[in-house]
C-alpha cells in the first residue's frame, strides 16, 4: 500500500529527530562534564575545566541554563523512549499474526499539528531563555573594577593590565570577588592574527577573539584557585597547545603579585654574561625585558618569566630543563611554534638559560 508511506515516514522522522537531538545534547553535556585530562603530566594539580563546577556569575548562569536544557532533553528522551518501548512490546508480533497486516492509520491532522507545534514551541522557549541569559550577562558593563586586556596570538595569550602597568603571558592573575560585594574583572579581548576564542569554563562562556574587533567578557571568581582554559576556536597547528591559566588570589596575595610584577627585572651581577648575550642575539626582536634593550612585542614579555608556572602557553612546566630545550628548539616541546630555534652553542645556551632563570 503506497498511501501509508508519508504517515510512517512522518512518525519515524519525528522520533528520529527528537531522539538524535536529545542524544547529541546528552553526549555534549557528558563530554563537558568529564573535561579534558590534566595536560601537564605528573604532579601538577589541574582543576577539571567543567561547566558544572562554576565559580563566577556568568558561569553560574551557564550551568543553570545547561541544567534547564538538559532537563527538557531528558523529558523528551523519557517520553519518546517510553512510548517507543511501550509500542515495541505492546504491538510486537505474536503467534498467529503471520500474513495478517495490522490496521493502517494515516491522515491525522491533529497528530501532525501536535508533533510540529510542540517541538517548535520547545525551540522557541529554549531560544528565549538563552537570549535572556545572554543579555543578562552582557548587561553589566565596566563602570569600575579591574581591567585587563587579553590578546590572542598564534599560539599564546598576551595579558596586559593597562592601569597597573603589567604585561605578562598565558597566566591571568585576578583577585577573588566576594559575592556580597562583587569586584568583577573586565577583560578586553583582541587578536594579533587570526580568530581565537577565550574560554575558561568555570569562569565564563566562550567569547571569540577576533582581529580588528574588540570583544568583552567579565568574570567575578568567588573561590581562590587555579582555573584552566583553552583557546576554543581552531586557529592553526598549535590550537590545542594554546592553553590558559587563571589564578584567583585572595586580595592581599593579589596585591603582592601586582607589586612583584611591577618591579623592574632583577639585574643579577652573577649572570651579566648571559644578559649581554641575550641583548646581542635575536631574542630581543620579539621579547621584552623591562630595563634592558629588549623591547620586542611579538613574543611574551620576559621581565618576570620565572614567575610563571608554565612555558609555551601551558604545554610544559617552566623548569630549567624545559626552558633550555625550548630555547634550543621550540619544536621539541611545541611543534610548529612560531619561535625560531636559536641554534646557540652549548656554552651560550647555558649562559642564556642562567640569565633567564634569574628573571623572577
Ligand atoms: Cu587560538 Cu585556537
Quick summary:
With 360 residues, the chain is of the alpha+beta class.
Bound molecules: dinuclear copper ion
Largest sheet: spatial strand order? 3-2-1-5-8
Give the topology string: H per helix, E per strand: HHHEEEEEEEEEEHHHEEHH
Low-confidence stretches: 1-45
Classified in CATH, the superfamily of the largest domain is: Cupredoxins -  blue copper proteins
In terms of DSSP E residues, the strand content is 15-25%
Q: Which class best fits the helix and strand makeup? A: alpha+beta
Using the coordinates above, name the CATH class of the largest domain: Mainly Beta
CATH architectural name of the largest domain: Sandwich
Please report the distance between the alpha carbons of the first and last residues.
81 Å
Kindly identify the CATH topology of the largest domain.
Immunoglobulin-like
Number of helices: 8
What is the total tally of β strands?
12
Question: What is the typical, i.e. mean, pLDDT?
Answer: 84
Q: Main beta sheet, described?
A: 5 strands, mixed
Helix content: 25-40%
Characterize the overall form: elongated
The domain tally reads 2
Radius of gyration: 28 Å
